Amino acid sequence: MPEKKTRWDIFCTVVDNFGDIGVTWRLSRQLVAEHGIAVRLWVDDLRAFERMCPEIDIHTSQQWQQGVEVRHWASDWQPVEAADVVIAAFACQLPGAYMDAMAEREKTPLWMNLDYLSAEGWVVGCHGLPSVKYRHVQKFFFFPGFQKGTGGLLRESGLLERRRTFQQSPEMQREFLQGLGINPAQGAQLISLFAYENTGLASWLDAMAGDTMPTHLLVPEGRILGDVERWLGVDGLKAGALHVCDALTVQVLPFVRQDQYDHLLWCCDFNAVRGEDSFVRAQWAGRPLLWHIYQQEEDIHLDKLEAFLALYVNGLSETAREAISGLWRAWNAGDNMAGHWQSTRKHWPELQKHAETWCLEQASQADLAAALVQFYVNWI
Ligand code: TRH
Question: Residue 224, SS3?
Fold first, then answer.
C-alpha cells in the first residue's frame, strides 16, 4: 500500500498587494513537488491570486493547481477536517470552527504561524518558540530569515543551477525577452522596477536618462506607474507602452506569472524589488538589487531595512558599502537618487560579485520549506 501522505493546510488572507499570496503559493507548490505533501491552500482573495496564476478560476471554491488543492476561504466557513500541519501565514486568524476541528482531532496537529521576513537579531531568538494555545493545541512561531537559527528563505531545489544555466545562455535570455516583446538596444543595461509609489523615482530616471550608458527599464504594471507617468508626462500607461528619453528607454510590462518574473530578474543587470517575495527572488538572481521595503506604522520598517543592510554589506569595501546603503536609504525615504546612483555605478563590478557571493551564502542554509518539514519531523 502506498504511504499515506501528510496533509498540510495553509491559510492566507490577502491583506494587500501580492506578498501574502506570493509566499504561500510558492511554499505550497514546493511542499507538493519536493516533499510529497498533500497541501490545501486556503485563500480569501482569488483575484489577487489570479494575477500571478491566470489558470485560477475565481468563481470556484475548490480547484487543483500544480498539485495544490486551492480552496476559497469564504466568510461562510463550511466545516472540514483539520490537517496534520496547519500554517497560518502572517498571523492570519483561522476560522473558529477550524480551530475547534484542530482541538477535536484524534492526533493534535502541528500549528505554526509563518511570520514576516526580517533580518533583525531578535528573530533568531524567537524562531520556533511556542506562541499562544487554543484549548490544548499549541501554536509555534516560525520565522523566515537570513541568519543561522532562523527558518531560512524559500528556495526551490535546483533554482540556482537553473538560474546559472539561463544566465550563461544569451539565446535563452533573448528568447525569453522577445516573448515579452523586449528588444533592448545593443549594450543597454537592463533594469527591472517593481516598487511602491516613490517620490525619488523622478531623480533616478533623470540620472539614467542623462547617463552615457543606455538603460532599458522594465516596469511591470503596478503601483509605481503613476510616478513613471508623471515623469514621462503621459497618462494611462499600460503593458506594451515604450518611451525613449535620451539614454533611457522605459517599457511597461504585464504582470507575469512567478516563474516568468524570476526569469526577468535573471535577465536584468539590476533589480528594484519590494515587499518580501520579490526581494528574496532578486537575491537568488545573483545581481545587485534595490529594495523598496513595505512601509509600516511608526516607521518600524526602517529598523528592518537597517538590519538587512548591516548583514548585506558585510564583505564590501567601505566606499561600496556607503554607496549601496546610501542608495537604499534614499529610495526608502523618497529622496533624490541621482548622486547615490552615480556612486553605486562606480562600484558596479564589486557589487555584482558581491551579489553572487551573498546569494551563495544564503543558499548554504536549509530552505524554508525543508526547514518547515524538519520542524514537523522534530515535533512528532
Ligand atoms: O506585493 P508586495 O508588495 O507584497 C507585500 C509584502 O509581502 C509585504 O511584506 C506584505 O506585508 C504586504 O505585501 C502585505 O511584494 P512581494 O512580497 O514582492 O510580492 C510580490 C509577488 O508578486 C511576488 O511573489 C512576485 C510576484 N510577481 C509576479 O508573480 N509577477 C510579476 O510580474 C511581479 C512584478 C511580481
Answer: coil
Q: How far apart are CA 364 and CA 254, in angstroms?
A: 33
Give the burial class of 140: count Cβ atoms within 10 A of its Cβ; 0-12 exposed, 13-18 middle, 19 or more buried. Answer: middle
Residues of the chain with pLDDT > 90, as a percent, come to 96
Neighbours of 211 (CB within 10 A): 16
Rounded mean pLDDT, 144-151:
97
Tell me if residue 137 falls in helix, strand or coil. Answer: strand
Known catalytic membership, residue 115: no
pLDDT of residue 3: 67
Three cell numbers written together for 366? 536549509
The pLDDT tens digits for 29-45 are 999 999 999 999 999 99
Residue 15: the pLDDT is 86
Other beta carbons within 10 Å of 44: 18
The single residue of 44, 84, 227, 276 carrying the catalytic annotation is 276
What is the rounded CA–CA span in Å between residue 137 and residue 131?
10
**Mean pLDDT of the region 11-18:** 92
Pocket of ligand 1 (CB under 6 A): 15-20, 22, 52, 116, 194, 220, 255-258, 261, 274-279, 294
- Which CATH class, in words, describes the domain spanning 159-363? alpha beta
At 360 the pLDDT is: 98
Q: Which atom of ligand 1 is nearest the CA belonging to 257?
A: 29
- Predicted confidence (pLDDT) at residue 2 exceeds the cutoff of 90: no
For residue 135, the CA-to-ligand 1 centroid distance in Å is 35
